[in-house]
Amino acid sequence: MLIVQNVTKNFGTFNALNNINLEFRNGVYGLLAPNGAGKTTLIKMLTTLLFPTSGSIIYNGKDIIKLDEEYREILGFLPQEFGYYKNYSPTAYLLYLAALKGIERQTAKTRVQELLKLVALENVADKKMKKFSGGMIQRVGIAQAMLNDPKILILDEPTAGLDPKERVRFRNLLTDLARERIVILSTHIVSDVESIANEIIMIKDQQILYQDTISRICEKLAGQVYETEVKYEEAAAFRKKYFSLSEKQESGMMYIRFLSEEPAQPEWRAVRPNLEDVFLHTYQDEVMLQG
Ligand SMILES: Nc1ncnc2c1ncn2[C@@H]1O[C@H](COP(=O)(O)OP(=O)(O)OP(=O)(O)O)[C@@H](O)[C@H]1O
Q: What is the pTM of this model?
């Protein structure tokens, strides 16, 4: 089990994270927040690239900073941008990284073959990576993070640049991997984690707002999400009164999904809140600013 205990991180006088507490067991954890909320800072601390200003991160009872090399041996990490050599084949690249990690050559060969099969790249194992799609490169990235069969796999914004089909494949792969390890996935895209995360972590105002299952998080908005139709000309006034979550225009009418704490009007249909609704509600100011 991995525990983040009262962790604060300051950069000079700037407070990036304030008294964070989290617990991770095997499964997929979606770290979901808009850009700038502190996801990367948290991930850098979980991977020992940054140290907390105060507090500690404990793996199976020991501080990860004290575990040092021992911790890095059980850690797999896919950073936002990972360096690969486009003139290398996946096999050559992974064997090279395995050598750097001190994995014995014969063991490495077997492991690399297994991994390329796992990420469905065995057919292109010996092809140069320069013609690979974003999704294929990302799968090479996962394979490199899995070289040491890590107990903790951390992926920072891993779906950027993937097409919808690649995203589905990627999600299925992660679900598989999370059966016997902790998988932590940071993203600002709700659909990346909605279908696979056992728990969602949301950071707001430098603190943890939620660490919970999706259904429990969505309960927070129970009875407040509705859909209705308004005339196109009335949409602007409606938007001023209620927080619009999504809109669709069809033959002069606007179909609006929105939030209201007021008693429902007869023409409103109550709907079950989803994670996107909670995300938009939670980060209204940030999301608006980022447009
Ligand atoms: N080395 C640093 N020095 C000063 N401020 C920093 C430093 N690193 C991060 N920050 C600030 O801390 C805050 C959190 O940054 P962080 O990169 O963790 O956010 P994020 O949620 O991961 O966003 P992104 O998705 O863009 O990486 C930001 O306001 C950022 O400007």
A: 0.89
